[in-house]
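Standup, Tuesday
Yesterday: got the pipeline producing structure tokens again.
Today: sanity-check two examples.
Blockers: none.

Example 1:
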Amino acid sequence: MRRLLPVGVAAGIAAAFNAPIAAVTFTIEEVVGTLDHSILSGVVVAAALAAVIERGILGGHPVIQVSQAYSLDHPIVAAHLCVARAPRRRWSPSRSPTRCCWCARGFA
């Protein structure tokens, strides 16, 4: 059971997110905790097989399609929006200068 749990986790993550390398990395770091070579081969094979089977069933098309990605073209506009909203959120740029910059970077 101790060796099968990481294999199942890697296969599930690889199939759910179509990311076998990320599944292997996450499983080794979070589930196993150490780089155990006896478990590594099973995790890699399970993640690769899950990604291949998932690709065969769903095809190369994403499950959720985004027709157009929206973003603000001007980070200055985003900064002004953050500053205008600051008094409503009970913080001001003088109290927390990093929040306004962080908000502007998020919109850029």
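Example 2:
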Amino acid sequence: MSDTPAILICSHGSRDPRAVEEFGLVAKALGARLPDSKVASGFLEFARPTITESLEALVADGATEIWALPGMLFAAMHMKTDIPAELDAFGKAHPEVALRFGAELGLDWRMMEAAKDRIETALAAADKTFGKVARKDTLLVVVGRGTSDPDANGNIAKVARMLWDVMGFGWVEAGFSGLAHPTADVVMLRELQRDAFRRVVVFPYFLFTGILVDRIYDWADAVADRYPEVQVVTVPYLKDHPRVIETFMERLQDIARDATGSLDRLAQYRAWKQAGEPLEGEPWMKKLFEHEHGHGGCGCGGHGHHHHEEAHDHEHAEGGCCGGHGHAHDDDHECCGGHGHADDDHECCGGHGHAHEHEHEHAHEHGGCGCGGKH
């Protein structure tokens, strides 16, 4: 039996083995910084071991106290209800085990440093290969997953604004590749139609790879083909950047400093459950979100429906790169081009598209600046 808490990093899970491997790198990096603690990882679905399986293994290894952390950028449905529900069920079956659940990575200065470093590194490579482009002539597009939770979606806009404030780009926009609008391809095309940027920097604000990240890079390639005079620079996602690992360590310190347990997300979940269904986001946000959808305010003409188990999104990419009428189901599902439905992790992308490696960093340079003297 160990006197130090065991650590469990929880993720949604993916059928993409690359994402599972990358998540393992995070657990490995944390284990290296916590030599006296047993560090494990677990998934909600699509991959093994499950969260419950990892909890059982830690207890079998002698753990009497387990600190769980969500391996997630922001607090959406999985963080707010799904993972706490798994932990709560395990806690009821194992009352002898002390369980604590910490916070998501969130809007932390360390995460902004990681993002800034990823972008700066990609820009330095592009400058060396294709020549420098002034920041004022550059558009930054920060791309998030996109969920049915307005709280999490709003955080992507905050990330974009904070990066713009410190990096000096000509303009910044936030976009999404999942169940939210505007999608990143629409954002890029719209901004290039409005202004003559010489360079577009596309940054997926994701922890790990998967279909949604591949989709972002494919969109960037399609924009580069459509605007050959514009240099399109794709930036690697966050993965196991040292600052990301530092943020995970800080979330563990938050648990250690919270002697009363007042910040314990599992305790909050249990309180919400006792009082009624947990809310997605702040109460006023939920009311506003429901009001907008009830009166067509979402801009989708009544087509957008977001549910917990079966998130169903009708994507109308007017002027977008994929075109057509696609239906995306669940977190990592995709259907681009024509009219189709994608189930599980299958893709049906017609036309332009190819797979990208873990560290995706390239620029497309096809000619002059095309700025028309505006920048």
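Quick observation on example 2: Residues 109-130 form the longest helix (22 residues). The mean pLDDT is 81.
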